[in-house]
Amino acid sequence: MLQLRPSCECCDRDLPPDSLDAVICSFECTFCVDCRDRLPGQRCPNCGGELVRRPIRPAGKLAANPPSSLRAVKSDGCASLF
């Protein structure tokens, strides 16, 4: 089950479970589309994997399968990558 992380790893922007602006790689690293568009090759800076739109979990399933509350943010905010 996807963790649905709550924020972008670069800019710490909130990305709620229904966000159309959240992208993930196969390891579930999570970024907003604005930061993704600025990354070299639009690839995950952690693994080099493809970043694709994160699926939206149906609202009725969130109670039994809540999103993660753990925020993972890079210390430099990805500044060295842009």
Strand content: 5-15%
Instruction: List the helices and strands in order.
Output: EEHE
Distance between the termini: 31 Å
CATH class: Alpha Beta
Number of domains: 1
User: What structural category characterises the helix and strand content?
Assistant: little secondary structure
Total number of beta strands: 3
Poorly predicted sequence stretches spanning 5 or more consecutive residues: none
**Mean pLDDT score:** 94
Tally of contiguous helical segments: 1
Architecture, according to CATH? 2-Layer Sandwich
Which helices and strands appear, and what pairs or packs with what?
Layout: E1 22-24, E2 30-32, H1 33-38, E3 52-53
Antiparallel strand pairs: 1-2, 1-3
Walk me through this protein's architecture.
The protein is largely without helices or strands. It has one domain (1-60): Herpes Virus-1. The chain has 1 helix and 3 strands, in the order E-E-H-E. A 3-stranded antiparallel β-sheet has the order 2-1-3. The mean pLDDT is 94. InterPro entries: DUF1272.
